[in-house]
Design a protein that fits this description.
247 residues, mainly beta, Immunoglobulin-like, five-stranded mixed sheet, four-stranded mixed sheet, 20 strands, 13% helix, flat
Length: 247
Amino acid sequence: MTQRGINLAPGPERPAGGHGVVGRRRAQLSVLLAFAVMSSSALAGTLAGTVRARAAAETGGAGNDGAYGSRRYRFVERIDYDRLQDFVVSIEGPLPAAGDSRVDTVVQKDAAFEPHVLPVVAGTVVRWPNEDDIYHNVFSMSDETPFDLKLYKRGERVPEVRFEKVGRVDVFCGIHTQMHCIILVLPNPFFAKTDNRGRYTIKDVPAGTYRLKAWHERLPSRVQEVVVPADGTVTADFVLGVGAAGE
């Protein structure tokens, strides 16, 4: 039946839940995206190795233990290289990565920040809960991400800070001068912090050639060029120390 040129005859019934052509195209796109993700994961390798520190005398630096034994330097702080922790190994430069938002946490407990060093990818939100019954005032005067969270203690608000710019962000407490931690903001998610034996593992690295950097807050960094295969593990070990070649 028609009325004023309009066809009132019933049209073809659409498949339930499929929304016709649009539904089929969405389903096909989902399959293609899933295949792309599986393919990229299949063409990825692993980086692994160790990082350790070495005293200047071992690396050929100018320093020597004898100077610290003199009256002038007897009470100067010395680095115990064997006890250094919190090395971070990362691939330099921007790389494609999932756009999922990331959230991490630095806890204030027993008047200290835990962890002391937190590596994050740019864009990560860091939460700052206070588990002490005393007030803390978390702040940073860094160029990359300056902030001041004001006074709060256990059971009160849990502030959050988003770290967008790559770089080192030193964080302190405005009340307790010994409280200090570092947020190391990196340009991609391919990084790892060493365990208590100096070992690290970075998984699912896309095949390619990269500059791999080992960092410590108190020592010069070092960089190696590595070639990651489509499958398997590449080993890259580092030795950091004053007087060693590095950046």
